[in-house]
Structures are given as structure tokens and as C-alpha cells.
What does this fold into?
Amino acid sequence: MKMKAYQIVEWGQPAEFVDVDKPTPGPNEVLVRMRGAGLCRTDLDLMDAVPGVGPYATVLPHGFTLGHENAGTVEAIGKGVTDLVEGANVIVHHIHSCGNCVFCLRAVEQHCSTYARGAMSLTRGLGLDGGLAPFMLVPRRELLPIGLLDPVEVAPLTDAGVTAYHAVKTVMDRLRPGTTATVIGVGGLGSYGVQLLKLLTEAKIVALDTNAERLAIARALGADHGVCSNDSASDAVMDLTHGYGSDVVLDFVGSNATLAIAAKISRPQGRIVIVGIEGGSLNVGWGSLATSCEVAISMGSTRADLMEICALAERGRLKIDKELFAFEDVEQAYDRLRKGQLVGRAVVTFP
Ligand code: NAD
Ligand code: ZN
Ligand code: ZN
It folds into this structure.
């Protein structure tokens, strides 16, 4: 049987609907009937990728179905899968991992050395077929059952939510009462950054964005202050912290402009976590960064992170903002994402 899939066919060409075969699960694989597929800014970068230019087009194979924020129900199971039944609600941890390398054994499978491609991990929706199709094939180890949680509701947690959660986990311990955390870029991922900081720490939260509507949403999700991300943003953050600066900066943009702000507002012993992939770089050296300030690039998440953020959702602790689009309207959804017009994460639904 044939089905429509929304694919990157060639680097440098617009993504398009393509007729592909409906997959059949092999041993230890599960065929998922898609219910919700969230759209990420990374997808736009994949569509805009120029052949031969990194970070995606140099390392990932083209010819794959987009969509790395996926949830649905079990349609069929392959040999060897004994713990899932047809019809069960599941979500996909999109990062492909081998289970055997040193990083998999250390339970940081997003760094799996078998499937690392340059600075990227091979992922369902980045190099491997993702969820922008009625059905997707997933190895059992990359699926999590979600019980009674609605797959459409929790689809945005599988990347926007869990990537932010992973980044927040790396700074939670240092965010004691009296500390400040600054979140730069409060869109799909960053808005989870704000609400997770609010939920899990005692830090004062400062949100930075160029879009005033996003700042208003961040305030509603728990940010104490919203600051326009312009040339005077670092002065504003210094004022808000009585000249001390921010203990933690989570940068969900990662451009030269935002990393420059991050460097200016960081305190000694602070931590800058770079999540956004806009390709900026940061000058690290005496005088350009506070003393003992750490810088980390946070890539992806683990399956345990996904399990934990779903537990937060189950307890009703998360506000999962989303805008629903029919699969055939996926291009309209991407257009709204590109123009910064979305209020919540765009989630594509299937009949
Ligand atoms: P988004 O478009 O929903 O949000 C980006 C936000 O940043 C928007 O609100 C935008 O107004 C704001 N912004 C843009 N320029 C800014 C500036 N100079 N200062 C402050 N704010 C600014 O995008 P998203 O889906 O949340 O993705 C965010 C980034 O995270 C992307 O670069 C994406 O590729 C990356 N990403 C990284 C990982 C990872 O594992 N590290 C995973 C998923 C996505
Ligand atoms: Zn993403
Ligand atoms: Zn591995």
C-alpha cells in the first residue's frame, strides 16, 4: 500500500509530498499510526540547507520524511516485541541509538557514537524517516508507552519539551533561592525552558525575545521579567540582577547576537547552555567571559528525560500550547512557524 510522506528529497530543494510504501515492521520494530507530529525550527533549517554546507547537509543523507516530534498508537508489531499491544498510545524518542557504545551504556544515548553524524545525531526526521506520514516505523527501544496520555497533546514534549527539560536538568542544582536564570528565545523550546525552571527551581527567571508576543507568553508561563532582545538587553539584565548578572543562561537561539548577550550577562561560576542551532559562536577567553563560567552545548535528550517529562504532564504540571493543522496543511503550518506567528507549537494531526 502507498502513502503520502512529506520529505526532504534533495538538499536545497523545498520539501514535498512523495508517494512511498507503507512500511512493515521487521524484528524488534513497531509500526506507529501517527496521531500528532510537532514541527520544529530545525525542520526549516533542514529545508533551507544548502548542499555541501553544514551542519545538516554535510552529514545527513537526503531522502527522508520530516517530523521528529512524534506520537501515535501501535498499528502493528514485529517479531520479538512482546511488551506492546496494538492500539497502545506511544511516543517516539527520535534519536537513533545502538545500545552498545560507551555513550549508550552511560545512558546518554543522544551522543551515540555509532550513529553520530558530525555534530548531529541520526534521528527520526533528521536523516531517518520521521512522522510526517500516516505511519512510521520505529525500533521498539525508541518508543515509550504513555498509557492514557493523549498522543496529540504530548507530541510537542518529544522534542520541544524534552530538549528544554534536558538543558534545565543540567543547571537545576545550581539554581538555589536568590539566583537568576535567563532564557533567550522563548519560542517552541524556550517556553518549556521557562515553565520547567519555574516548576523545578527557585531561580528568578528573565525571558529575552525579539517578539513581544512571545515575551507575554513567557510571562504567563512563569517568567518574572520579559526583556526585548536588542542592543540594550544585557544592560537590562544587569539592572534586573543589581549588577551581578545571571547564574545560568539558556540560549535557545544560538546566534552571534544572543551568545554575545549570554557572555555579557553571565556571572563568575555561571553556566551558559547553548541549545539553539543558529550557528553563532562565542569567544571564550580571559576578559570575554566571566571567570569559572562554564559553556555547554546541549544536544537532544535521553529516553529517561522523555519518561520524566511525560510524568510531569501526567500530573498536570505542564501547559502544552499548540496549534493543530491537518496533514495536508503542513506547508501552511511551516509558513506560520517561519513568520513567528504561532502561539503554541504547530502539531500536525492525521485522520
Ligand atoms: P522557534 O522559532 O519556535 O523559537 C525561536 C524563538 O527565538 C522565537 O520566539 C524567536 O522570536 C526568538 N528569537 C529569534 N531571534 C532572537 C534573538 N536575537 N534574541 C532573542 N530571541 C530571538 O524555534 P524552536 O523550534 O523553539 O527552536 C529553537 C532552536 O533550537 C532552533 O535553533 C532549533 O534548531 C534548536 N533545536 C535544538 C535542539 C538541540 O538538541 N539542541 C533540539 C531541537 C531544536
Ligand atoms: Zn527539533
Ligand atoms: Zn550507541
About this structure: The CA atoms of residues 60 and 127 lie 5 Å apart. The pocket of zinc ion (ligand 2) is lined by residues 40, 42, 68, 159 (CB under 6 Å). DSSP finds ten helices and 20 strands in the chain. Residues 2-158+321-349 form a domain with the Quinone Oxidoreductase; Chain A, domain 1 fold (CATH 3.90.180.10).
